[in-house]
Specification:
Layout lengths: L15 H16 L2 H26 L23 H18 L8 H18 L9 H9 L3 H19 L20 E6 L3 E6 L11 E4 L17 H7 L4 E6 L11 H20 L4 E6 L1 H15 L5 E7 L17 H14 L1 E2 L1 H11 L1 H14 L8 H6 L5 E2 H13 L9 E2 L2 E2 L9 E6 L7 H5 L1 H4 L5 E6 L17 E7 L8 H7 L1 E4 L3 H10 L22 E2 L8
Parallel strand pairs: 3-4, 3-5, 5-6, 6-11, 11-12
Antiparallel strand pairs: 1-2, 1-15, 2-4, 7-8, 9-10, 12-13, 13-14
Helix pairs in contact: 1-4, 2-3, 6-12, 8-9, 10-14, 11-12
């Protein structure tokens, strides 16, 4: 995101043994298929010979387009010697290296993921587009500016180095201060405990829907991703449509919070907030929404409440949320018992996992977009991209307490306890099949954190007879934070009115209706349809008589930690 890295771990925590084992698996697979090894060797010789012929012809003045479809090489300048040779050779090597991974089809999925990850790193590092002397576009710009771009780039590099050493905020983030430019929807903190502040937003209409909305954001991000600039704030949009909205704001943990567990996030977070909302508004039922791991927590809590016979939840909405971690996507590159053991040692030493460490993993998963492209633009082109609200939020990271994060990775990612019915709350397993309320689940097409096919598995795990799955364009953050009107977005919608119909992801793509624009209006209309038909007068902010007096103005204090 984009995109912030909501990656659960950081790459330096991983053991190099996992990658060595992946290479070993690949080699043994190749060894077992000598005919393939011979074919690869022959293809390598043929490609090398062809590359020499191409280079010789280009050097002698022949017009030889490089023939690569890589977007990095589409400028006309790449078709001239020697740059057409560079692009041609890189394209040929890319094709050959992809063929060498064919044996990976017979090895474990974890090893295959790691091999593909290493291949991408190698191709990014060897791309001629990423270096000044082998990139004609950069050379042309440098000549046109007499090197001024490189001087600017050197200045930016020194600024970034100094900022990193001093721990100062990223350039441009000060334009988006919390409570001044972002997170400015009016409201009050109406409850506070050692883990959360609960924000109730001021009504913006003379009457409101009877059922309030309680949003549980992820605690690996600041909540205000859902309340960015006014034009980009999901909270402001919902309030403007006549909904009473409550938001959990998680406290940023310190080393003293090392022993906070998932049970604490459920008890002090989700359940404490639901109790407060019920007492403040007096509504018998509450719409609940969760984002990323906040949605996973909501799924756990909803199943636990259903097990108890508690019927306060009117509906469940999940944004980019996984409940089945059997296919967690590219993050599996960094998830294994050995890697988690090393991560555990790191967290035990510090008490928390710093946000910078989490950011590194996601940056490596999308190194071309998040590492190489920014570096080239800033340090070689001398161009600083303008900061926007989502990017500023992205730089405002949070920490993870040791015990909770270890449980999250081991019990959910590694052991997949929630999907298999082994995850316990209060010593008793919770079953997602006990969730029968209406559900609205949103996945994003290019999500590297919660791949949409993984989010889609929630349909088969729950027993809602009123289930909608929406697939929107964009990634984990940008796809969710689309604004109510966004001509650059599209979304697909498919609804089921029974408990069991579960088409395959491919069938879903074929059957779902494709709609232009943001998915926000579709969700708001769904919420309205699943609310009581009669609207009511808005309730005051807080309820002192019930023990929840207004404590301070939104956005509160925890979000600034």
């Amino acid at each position: 995101m984009t995109t912030h890295v909501h990656s659960p771990i950081e790459p330096r925590s991983g053991s190099s043994d996992e990658f060595a084992r992946a290479w070993q698996d690949w080699w043994l697979s190749l060894y077992a298929r000598p005919e393939l090894a011979q074919a690869l060797a022959q293809d390598a010789v043929a490609r090398t010979t062809e590359s020499w012929r191409f280079a010789l012809g280009a050097a002698m003045g022949q017009t030889l387009p490089h023939g690569s479809s890589d977007p990095q090489f589409q400028d006309e300048s790449w078709n001239h010697w020697p740059f057409n040779v560079y692009a041609h050779n890189h394209s040929s090597f890319s094709q050959w290296s992809a063929q060498t991974l064919a044996p990976a089809a017979g090895i474990s999925s974890g090893s295959a993921l790691r091999l593909n990850f290493l291949q991408r790193q190698l191709l990014d590092a060897s791309s001629p587009a990423h270096y000044l002397l082998t990139n004609p576009e950069l050379l042309q710009q440098s000549r046109a500016e007499s090197g001024a771009n490189l001087l600017r780039g050197a200045q930016y590099w020194l600024e970034d180095l100094t900022r990193t050493i001093e721990g100062s905020p990223a350039p441009g983030t000060l334009k988006y201060r919390v409570g001044e430019q972002v997170a400015i929807t009016p409201g009050k903190v109406v409850m506070r405990n050692e883990l959360i502040e609960l924000i109730q937003y001021s009504p913006q209409s003379p009457d409101v829907h009877a059922e309030p909305i309680l949003i549980t954001p992820a605690w690996i991000m600041k909540y205000y991703v859902l309340d960015l600039s006014p034009h980009n704030s999901l909270v402001r949009y919902l309030v403007g449509q006549g909904h009473t909205v409550f938001m959990i704001s998680w406290r940023n943990p310190t080393a003293a919070d090392r022993d906070l567990a998932l049970d604490d996030y459920l008890r002090l977070g989700l359940r404490a907030a639901l109790d407060a909302v019920s007492a403040i508004v007096g509504a018998p039922r509450v719409h609940m929404a969760g984002y990323c791991i906040g949605g996973t927590l909501l799924s756990i809590g909803a199943a636990a409440l259903a097990r108890e016979g508690n019927r306060r939840i009117a509906s469940v909405t999940l944004f980019a949320t996984q409940t089945d971690f059997s296919e967690p996507g590219e993050l599996a590159v960094f998830i294994s018992p050995a890697q988690l053991e090393l991560l555990q040692l790191l967290m035990q030493r510090d008490g928390v996992l710093a946000s910078e460490r989490m950011s590194a993993a996601f940056a490596l998963l999308r190194a071309g977009d998040l590492l190489w492209a920014p570096a080239i633009n800033q340090y070689l082109r001398g161009e600083r991209g303008s900061m926007n609200d989502l990017m500023a939020w992205n730089a405002d990271g949070t920490r993870m307490p040791c015990r909770m994060h270890s449980e999250y990775l081991t019990r959910l990612y590694l052991n997949n306890e929630l999907a298999t019915g082994q995850f316990t709350v209060g010593g008793t397993p919770v079953e997602l099949q006990q969730i029968t309320v209406p559900m609205f689940v949103v996945g994003t097409e290019t999500d590297h954190v919660a791949p949409w096919r993984s989010a889609y598995k929630t349909r088969a795990l729950t027993r809602s007879s009123d289930f909608s799955f929406v697939l929107t364009s964009g990634g984990h953050n940008a796809g969710i934070i689309s604004g109510p009107v966004n001509p650059k977005r599209r979304h697909r919608v498919l609804r089921w009115q029974d408990q069991t119909t579960t088409p395959s992801p491919e069938q879903y793509l074929a059957e779902a209706e494709v709609c232009a624009g943001s998915w926000w209006p579709a969700w708001q209309q769904w919420l309205a349809r699943h609310s009581s038909p009669d609207r009511i007068a808005p309730s005051p902010l807080g309820n002192a008589a019930a023990g929840y007096p207004p404590l301070s103005d939104a956005p509160g204090g925890y979000v600034r930690g």
